[in-house]
Amino acid sequence: MHVEGFFEWLGQALGAIIRWVVDSLSWLFSLLGNAGGNFVDGLSRTLGMDTNIVTIAALIVGLLFLYSAVRAFMRASIIMGVIWAVLGLWLLSWIIQ
User: Any stretches that span the bilayer, and where are they (predicted)?
Assistant: First the structure.
């Protein structure tokens, strides 16, 4: 590597640092993406459901319905607790095979 002057050396050094940062962030986001994909694959395989975004969203909504049912029962609202529980269980039974 032949360097003509100080500013060329500075540019090469700065370029090397920027490239290292970009490569490191690319590696990190790739690692996180693979971990997230493996988590979703394992979750869906265990529950027996598809791995598309609609079923994952339905799973989250169903769990939120069950959470609302528990909160309603803790507030001694039996009717709303039963409604939330039935909705949550209906939705979860629809997506889990």
Answer: 53-70, 77-96
